[in-house]
Write a structure and sequence with these properties.
Layout (H helix, E strand, L loop, with lengths): L1 E3 L16 E4 L6 H15 L3 E6 L5 H14 L3 E7 L2 H11 L3 E4 L8 E8 L3 E2 L2 H18 L1 E3 L7 E3 L3 H11 L8 E6 L5 H8 L10 E6 L21 H9 L4 E5 L6 E4 L5 E2 L1 H18 L6 E5 L5 H8 L3 E5 L3 H11 L3 E3 L5 E3 L5 E2 L1 H13 L5 H6 L5 E2 L3 E4 L3 H11 L6 E4 L4 E5 L5 E6 L5 E8 L2 H16 L1
Helix pairs in contact: 1-2, 1-4, 8-9, 8-11
Family: Belongs to the phosphohexose mutase family.
GO molecular function: phosphomannomutase activity
Organism: Enteractinococcus fodinae
Length: 472
């Protein structure tokens, strides 16, 4: 069976990244590319069954259809999952023990689409573990203008997994007995508008003691209200205002594919992902200890607040530091049988969720912790926010390595320091009171700066001193 392409061949190097695919609809990514990628995906994974779904972006249905054609032409059976969030893919891949893909561009703006891929059991696929091979094979087919499929193509069936996903998450966190909570949820017109009513509402399962106030639950990949990228403060403004207007207990904001969740307290003030990591870690450590584990492991990346390892150790767990990036976190999760992992970017990983990241499960843990106390969210978060962070600050530089060397040579702390070189360069006060990290972007001529200190004055001194060297 020969399938010819009818669109100009795109250059897949424009859309294939280190961990996934992100491209511009009908420019660097189109239906022919999706078809070729589907064929190559089956070849590389040697899959007999492939799970395929997509988000609410205008091109996702078209790309799912094209990918399906490619996958069945390669001989695999395809299970189309329909409309899914990224963590719904991970759930399905884990439960069915099958590889799969979701067409999504996560938090990228309108006009983009992409693909997140996983092997069976929600094991991630990166450039080092098959993504580069998929790119190479697919590009070859696009350049040749066709693919030659097997004599007997695979079959196609549909399966809706929303209810099973909601039931699975509720089996991990019991919210049925919490005090009544009023929760504003900003879905940003992304996939959380589909998953939130199923998991936290009464659309699929019995109602919980949660009054959900929805913001932008209408699925719309043109993002008419604001970009579905809550790491940017401007995209939290509506949520913050709604929390105050409705006198809500807490606010949740999800990115476009709903694998990340950001939290604001009852005053509308953001709760840092480091504090969320520490809060969830305490709950997961206690649960593991109740099951008989003596020293549960929690993974955190090197620019997460030091409150995380402090809290983990105080709770009887073991904290292990890793580089920034989900492939590193997931690899460490598997290697160390870790119960939980957290990143500053609001990605949260759970052993009980196939070592994959899910914003919804993290949100459920926070709601469970808040709902078990009469204290407001701000008071609860304050227990896990003893330090002052700069947030990530980017500087455009011509030579990243030379600029880092310049900072190391010129920065004078006036006290004894420790230098670490995992993922860029970290300089830390020998007494552990403060630290800063500078690391190069993998995709742009940028240096990323993060710092943490015990007080505002020290943080601002670190920030201003180091940025002055970088930008001089």
């Amino acid at each position: 069976m020969r399938i010819a392409f009818d669109q100009p061949a795109v250059n897949l190097s424009d859309s294939f990244k280190a961990y996934d695919v992100r491209g511009i609809e009908d420019h660097t990514l189109n239906s022919d590319a999706a078809l070729a990628i589907g064929f190559a995906f089956v070849e590389v994974t040697e899959a007999t069954t492939v799970l395929v779904g997509g988000d609410m972006r205008p091109s996702s249905d078209e790309y799912v259809t094209a990918f399906t054609r490619g996958a069945i032409a390669a001989g695999a059976d395809v299970v189309q999952l329909g409309l899914i969030s990224t963590d719904m893919l991970y759930h399905a891949s884990g439960v069915f023990d099958a590889p799969g893909v979701v067409f999504t561009a996560s938090h990228n703006p309108a006009g983009y689409n992409g693909i997140k891929m996983t092997r069976a059991g929600a094991v991630p696929i990166s450039s080092d573990t098959g993504l580069a091979d998929i790119q190479r094979l697919a590009q070859g087919y696009l350049d040749a203008g066709c693919i030659s499929g097997v004599q007997t193509p695979g079959t196609v069936q549909q399966q809706d997994t929303l209810a099973a996903y909601a039931e699975y998450l509720r089996s991990l966190v019991d919210l049925s007995t919490i005090r009544p909570l009023k929760v504003v949820v900003d879905a940003g017109n992304g996939m959380a508008g589909y998953t939130t009513p199923a998991v936290l509402g009464d659309q699929v399962l019995e109602a919980l003691p949660i009054d959900i106030i929805p913001l932008y639950f209408e699925l719309d990949g043109t993002f008419p209200n604001h970009p579905a990228n809550p790491i940017e403060p401007a995209n939290l403004v509506d949520l913050q205002a709604a929390v105050r207007e409705h006198d809500a207990d807490i606010g949740l904001a999800f990115d476009g594919d709903a694998d990340r969740c950001f939290v604001v307290d009852e005053r509308g003030e953001p709760i840092s992902p480091s504090a969320i990591t520490a809060m969830v870690a305490v709950r997961e450590i206690a649960r593991a200890q109740d099951a008989g584990e003596t020293t549960p492991v929690v993974i955190y990346n090197l620019i997460t607040s030091k409150v995380v390892p402090e809290v983990v150790q105080a709770a009887g767990g073991r904290a292990i530091e890793t580089r920034v990036g989900h492939s590193f976190i997931k690899a460490y999760m598997a290697e160390h049988a870790a119960i939980f992992g957290g990143e500053h970017s609001a990605h949260y990983y759970f052993r009980d969720f196939f070592n994959a990241d899910t914003g919804m499960l993290a949100a459920m843990h926070v709601l469970a912790m808040l709902g078990a106390t009469q204290a407001p969210a701000s008071e609860l978060a304050a227990e896990y926010s003893p330090y002052v962070a700069s947030g990530e600050i980017n500087s455009r530089v011509d030579d990243q390595a030379a600029t880092i060397a310049k900072v190391v040579a010129e920065f004078d702390a006036g006290v004894e320091t420790i230098l670490k070189t995992m993922d860029g360069t970290t300089i830390e006060a020998a007494d552990g009171s403060w630290w800063f990290n500078i690391r190069p972007s993998n995709t742009e001529p940028l240096l990323r700066f993060n710092a943490e200190a015990p007080d505002v004055a020290t943080m601002e001194w670190l920030r201003d001193t180091v940025l002055a060297i970088i930008r001089s």
